[in-house]
Write a structure and sequence with these properties.
Structural class: mainly alpha
Largest sheet: none
Number of helices: 7
Number of domains: 1
Radius of gyration: 19 Å
Helix content: over 70%
Length: 160
């Protein structure tokens, strides 16, 4: 018999957002650490043309993805109806966050791959900026309450 407690309990249901968030963040961090501590055997960093191209492409892509993640989150939130149930709103919030995190994760992985190819630490600086943006997009009950204008009993269900 399965336990549907997390589906019926809004606070437990909201905690799933934190699990997904930390799993994605841990995946990015582990991939970056593996890339840094396990260098490949080839000297691929000698290609100056590729390095000069990636030096412009990776940060541009990162900045674009950071702004796009915020834009997509805001756009998705605006589409949610006020008469939806609390659990539906939590589900929509989770979907909006996952879309936002996926865009940031794509930029982060691109930055790590650029590091693997070139062995240039510059791409870890770009990764650091992306991780800051990722950390700032951490799920928050306060953010959820204000974005969805949750009040009364629904607020109490989440905050107690």
């Amino acid at each position: 018999m399965t336990n549907n407690n997390s589906q019926s309990n809004p606070k437990q249901n909201f905690k799933i957002n934190f699990i997904i968030y930390f799993a994605l963040l841990a995946g990015i961090m582990m991939f970056a650490l593996l890339a840094y501590f396990f260098p490949n055997g080839q000297e691929v960093g000698k290609n100056e043309n590729l390095l000069s191209i990636l030096t412009y492409v990776v940060p541009t892509f990162a900045v674009f993805e950071i702004f796009l993640s915020r834009f997509m989150y805001s756009k998705f939130i605006l589409q949610i109806q006020n008469n939806a149930t609390l659990l539906e709103k939590i589900s929509k919030y989770r979907t909006a966050k996952i879309i936002s995190w996926a865009l940031l994760e794509g930029a982060a992985l691109f930055s790590v791959v650029a590091f693997i190819i070139t062995r240039s630490v510059f791409f870890f600086v770009v990764l650091f900026v992306i991780i800051i943006a990722f950390i700032l997009s951490k799920p928050s009950i306060d953010e959820f309450l204000s974005n969805f204008r949750i009040e009364g009993n629904e607020r109490d269900d989440l905050t107690r």
